[in-house]
Amino acid sequence: MANDAHTPTRLIRLPEVKLRTGLARSSIYRMMEDGGFPRPRKLGPRAVAWLVNDIDQWIDSRPAKPTR
């Protein structure tokens, strides 16, 4: 098992967040306003990115879709 203290943190931009979650930009920002989605880190005056660990934890917290 890897030690989390030594795992490098990776930042991902919106296109990768959309691919990982399957959500549209508007849905991501609406859920952020409601407190139901991780907030990004500010990289500069017009750039943000999310911690990949925050996105992975959010995905893992979602209930599994039941199969038929």
Automatic annotation (TrEMBL):
Q: In the UniProt record, does the keyword Manganese occur?
A: no
Q: Which Pfam families match?
A: Phage_AlpA
* InterPro entries per UniProt: AlpA (IPR010260), Prophage_regulatory_activator (IPR052931)
Q: What is this protein called?
A: DNA-binding protein
- Print the keywords alphabetically: DNA-binding
Q: In which domain of life is the source organism classified?
A: Bacteria
Output one GO MF annotation. DNA binding
Q: Which organism is it from?
A: Sphingomonas metalli
